[in-house]
Amino acid sequence: MAKILMVKPLFPYPPHQGTRRVSLALLGDLASEHDVTYLCQREARAEASLVPEVERLGVRVVAPLMPNHVTPLHKVCYKLKNRLGSAWSGVPEICLYWSNRVLRSNLERLGRELRPDLTILENWETFPLRRSIQSGLAVLLAHDAAFQIRERAAQAAEDGPARARLARVAQRYKKWETAAWSMYDAILCLTDEDRQVIERELAGRGPRFVRHLPVPVSGDLFACRRPTEAGLKIGFMGSFRADFNLDALAYLTGQIWPAVMRRLPQAQLLLAGNGYDGPLKRKAETAGARWLGFVERLETFFEEIDVLVVPLRFGGGVRIRILEAMAAGVPVVASEVAVAGLGVAGGEQCAIASGADAIAASVTNLLTHPEDARELGARGRQWCHARHSPEIVRPARLGIIREILETVRP
After folding, report:
1. What pLDDT sits at residue 103?
2. Per-10-residue mean pLDDT for the chain, 410 residues long?
3. I want to staple 154 with a disulfide (CB 3.0 to 4.6 A). Which of 42, 165, 166, 303 is the partner?
4. Domains 3-216+390-407 and 219-388 share a fold
5. Cα dihedral angle (42, 47, 51, 56), rounded to 10 degrees?
6. CATH of domain 219-388
7. What is the pLDDT of residue 110?
């Protein structure tokens, strides 16, 4: 049994984002074999009442309040300090935001008290904390190759000036992200595509141990029942804190949904997600969509819809919502960007389409051919169970952690 300290810049509960579900699943796996302490930050005082929900996984939780959430004045000063610090040092502001003095001081204190064998930092943006790890191995859990998200955002921009500006930002972030990768003893990636990107960008300049850490899907989802009668309900879900999900929502409601309605006027659109109450919501509702907001139980959502559409135009990492829908037996229509790195084949585990008309046609085809939709959903569920069920994934993940402890040297 090793002592493991896992560090995340945000509190992971409730698990209404894919990244939070990824973190909680890894915590549960690690706690089944190791002594685990979890250091994270609360964005609100009320989140203190949720700490026991995370501790049920068998981990010790240390969750200080973020310094910008003490008072409104603290928020203003914190933002100004980070903006000035970024302008002076060149370090992206988000890196200073996530790697504040509160998190750093707790990391250093726990390092002295616990002397962990392994410290896992989530997200490359926390790299300023790397120098505070003084004992054991330092491992990065990279949720994605983030600079690629910005590159794809630049490519998706509709006008030249915006495309050029976003490309410059992507290049700046790439410099910092690749430099951050080289600081760790090992890197864990959520897709094999990201592993290849990191190894290619480092080209021998960083850790030799870069591994794809497979992502599990909750076993409860594999027990979901599909509707007994075929319907015409299209589902879309995502955390609207992410710009790529907001872009996908705009793309769906502005181009894809009208194309579906021209083909199938009786269709219904159900939108699920948290963190948004802006004009896109009102536009979607005006167009006839039903806005569900945060869905407490994914099973309920998946059991109601007939097709899930994931029309991302840019993004990165693992699209946990696609895996979860597959586990529930829901047929999925996704863009090529959305399924990148998952290892799925179009027409086998899900439908893959490019362009608004092609996505709309694929969605309409599944809704009007329910037997094909059921077969696609069944193949997706079978594939997902073989690769992402907890009983398959946990031993593989624990094996990777043991390999790090046994073979990697600081």
Report:
1. 94
2. 95 87 94 97 93 96 91 87 90 91 95 96 95 94 88 81 86 92 95 91 86 92 84 90 87 94 94 81 85 86 94 84 94 93 86 95 95 95 95 95 91
3. 166
4. yes
5. -120
6. 3.40.50.2000
7. 97
CA angle 363/277/301 to nearest 5° reads 40
Q: What pLDDT is recorded for position 275?
A: 67
Alpha carbons within 13 angstroms on the beta-carbon side of residue 253 total 22
Amino acid at 148: Q
Query: Hey, what CATH class is 3-216+390-407 in?
Result: alpha beta
What's the Cα-to-Cα distance from 176 to each of 90, 172, 318, rounded to whole Å? 9, 7, 22
For residue 380, the number of C-alpha atoms closer than 13 Å in the C-beta half-sphere is 32
Cα end-to-end span (Å), the chain: 19
Residue 273, phi then psi, degrees to nearest 5: 160, 170
Residue whose structure tokens are 């509707």: 227
One-letter identity of residue 72: P
What are the sequence ranges of the domains in the chain?
3-216+390-407, 219-388
